[in-house]
Automatic annotation (TrEMBL):
One Gene Ontology cellular component annotation held by this UniProt entry: plasma membrane
Name of protein: Putative membrane protein
Subcellular locations according to the entry: Cell membrane
Organism expressing this protein natively: Thiorhodovibrio frisius
Listed transmembrane segments: 171-192, 208-232, 239-259, 265-284
Ranges for domain BLUF: 1-92
Keyword Nucleus attached: no
SMART domains: BLUF
Keyword vocabulary terms for this entry: Cell membrane, Membrane, Transmembrane, Transmembrane helix
PROSITE patterns on file: BLUF (PS50925)
GO molecular function, one term: blue light photoreceptor activity
Main location per the UniProt record: membrane
UniProt cross-references to InterPro entries, sorted A to Z: Acylphosphatase-like_dom_sf (IPR036046), BLUF_domain (IPR007024), P_starv_induced_PsiE-like (IPR020948)
SUPFAM superfamilies listed in its UniProt record: Acylphosphatase/BLUF domain-like
Length: 299
């Protein structure tokens, strides 16, 4: 693996929306090719750290270099690594503004100002580049262990709201774990009471089906937990996983169907939902595969 750092000049000032679009693309594409890193932008200048397999990084760099959004790309550091420094970021982001620099309160960055963040200066002051990278990487790790902050993080109110949401999601994750443990205990208890039944014949097929239902409920709870943790990691709702969870939930219902009590209409409607969810899942799966192939013609 290698870690590579380059600097470049934006051909036109990047608006928040431009940066958001760029980051959204990177955060979607980089995990598919095993790339991590961080992007700094300020004063019309980019500084980007890229980590990954050498060949992948070289190919990505070729693509990035041809991007018309910037020019004059210069690699200022390239080294072999055994461990990623930005393992948690498919592409972290830091706006280099006077405010962020002063808030950094770092001795090495005391004499560094937003106006200095330009390729000529950065090329000559590698120590500053290293300090910038180190400082903001560590700050991110401290900032509640968030993985990917949005480009809006400079806005104090949005920042607070963002934190509240993440805290709420964390609370949900904890409650979900409690639910899972509770579910496991329930399944254990149901099994235990069945095993204690006077004769094996008492363990009727219906009871077994009920136990299957309880098992599947716990699995669904685990899927929901995974949904929550993935949201915390990526700041994105993974729709494919949500569909998979819905499929599991409906499959659970199908498994415990009591055909003597259900109306044909109910069964048909359930079949339609299963079909629709299955189709959506298949389409999303196909899109991911085709997308990955499109973006990695060598694969
Ligand atoms: C400063 C900058 C950094 C970029 N970083 C990445 C990156 O980390 N990963 C990525 O896939 N594309 C990145 N891009 C976008 C690529 O240059 C390119 O637009 C994208 O890979 C799509 O290329 P394609 O249309 O040839 O598939 C970056 C672009 C710029 C201007």
């Amino acid at each position: 693996m290698i870690q590579l750092v380059y600097i470049s000049a934006a051909t036109a000032p990047m608006s928040k929306q431009d940066l958001k679009d760029l980051l959204q693309y990177c955060r979607q594409h980089n995990p598919q090719i095993g790339v991590t890193g961080m992007l700094f932008y300020g004063n019309g200048t980019f500084l980007q750290v890229l980590e990954g397999e050498e060949q992948v990084i070289d190919e990505l760099l070729d693509t990035i270099e041809q991007d018309p959004r910037h020019t004059g790309l210069q690699v200022i550091q390239r080294k072999a690594i055994t461990e990623r420094e930005y393992a948690d970021w498919s592409m972290g982001f830091q706006q280099v503004s006077e405010r962020a620099l002063r808030a950094a309160a770092s001795a090495e960055l005391d004499d560094f100002h937003e106006g200095d963040f330009k390729t000529g200066y950065l090329r000559e002051h590698r120590i500053v580049v290293q300090s910038l990278m180190d400082h903001f990487r560590k700050q991110r790790i401290k900032a509640a262990g968030q993985s990917e902050l949005g480009v809006d993080e400079e806005d104090a109110m949005i920042n607070v709201l963002h934190r509240i949401i993440r805290l709420s999601v964390r609370a949900l994750a904890i409650m979900m774990v409690i639910t899972i443990v509770w579910g496991v205990l329930e399944v254990g208890y149901a099994l235990y009471s069945q095993l204690l039944a006077p004769a094996v014949t008492d363990l009727r097929i219906n009871d077994i089906v009920v136990i299957f239902g309880a098992f599947l409920s716990v699995l669904i709870a685990i899927e929901i937990f995974v949904n929550i943790t993935l949201y915390l990691r990526d700041d994105v709702v993974h729709v494919k996983l949500v569909i998979a969870t819905a499929l599991m939930a409906i499959a659970r219902k199908v498994i415990v169907f009591d055909f003597e009590k259900l109306t044909p209409m109910y069964i048909l409607a359930t079949a339609a939902v299963v079909l629709a969810l299955g189709l959506v899942y298949w389409l999303m799966d196909r899109q991911t595969v085709i997308g990955a192939r499109y973006q990695r013609p060598e694969a």
